[in-house]
């Protein structure tokens, strides 16, 4: 294990840059897994980190110790930092001080979309994206296609909110959604408060594509035109809208319910 | 309309205090509605603000103008601020510069809980609370009971995420949940990943209490003991958990579905 004690150490500067700049993460095609829970989930799903970073005070922590051993066994280098340097990298308050640097997964697009999938057009809020990824993973949906305008899936905020769902999913980013949807042969469902058909009336006992959009503006019109079904979630109140992550959860789990 | 141009003006200092300190808002029993959408929803549901604050550059904005007229008609004073002073009060970036100061609603507890309700034990995340309030309002559930450890409902963050749902609901805060639940005669449902009964097997065509807890620790054991049903949302993936706001949306809308 190597120790770094100076802020001016080139590797520390690089870590600091990765931790604080989303542009740096995109450019380096690397990201940070911040906290024991995410690191553990990553290893559990077969990931091999590029680098492990641990806060000095957490070296002997009972949750950290087995993860350090697994890193050592797979040849991953561990860097130990004084807490004050570590805390400048982490966004987790009062957490256990362990993080991984990993290569950002970037899977190749599948030849065709024939399994249930989620398509996200310009979704803006990291918490919403994380919640949607978590709900999709819990509902057994594996493929997520994001437009270039959608918030970056592998940002620390989205990963915290996703609680490890990322590692169960194939997340395709910067996808040209119009091109993708043109070739889809399974139903493409978009929710709309004006639709006549409810989600309960659609046969979800088959693979479908769920299409969700921007929190304020919804799905772009040219993509709405490619939906085969506009469906509504019937509501009982005076408010005619749901948070997009709440809508997505209701849709995904209506599909689970129909499959029971 | 009165103009304030100095940071040292006592009323401006008071506003600044309200805008930046959650403690100040609790103590004054007043809160801020930040942005045109929330202000409009408040008026629409019969609210009368204590004070209206407008940014100078938005005085003639087409969405602001009718709201200023309604404030004038109801005798609410409007204060105009230079943009630089206004922006120091607002958390909304690139928004239309209008806010209301209102008395924080603080309804008296009902004599009995006989309508469908939501009970929140130590919920921590403002975005989750706002999403739950929005989903409840959309599902036609009116009563929300929050423990003293639950995040404050009338904070600007929760209100932004609630999108006006607050004004459709009776939100009871600092409620002693054990005392409340002891006297409840309708089913009290708590979600649990270990339960044998699914939400689809429970008769939701009757008023029920939905009980949700802390994002990490769930519902406190002494409250779980007061639930009449432990129910599960069947899942299909390797992840055995959902975000609490996603769970709540699925539960509330399963109740709506059963009522169709």
From TrEMBL, chains A, B:
Q: Which UniProt keywords apply?
A: Methyltransferase, Transferase
Q: Which residues form the signal peptide?
A: none
Could you state one GO biological process linked to this protein? methylation
Q: Name one Pfam family in it.
A: SpoU_methylase
Which Gene Ontology terms cover its molecular function? RNA binding; RNA methyltransferase activity
The answer, when asked if Cell inner membrane is one of the entry's keywords, is no
Q: What is this protein called?
A: RNA methyltransferase
Species this chain originates from: Undibacterium terreum
Residues in domain tRNA/rRNA methyltransferase SpoU type?
117-252
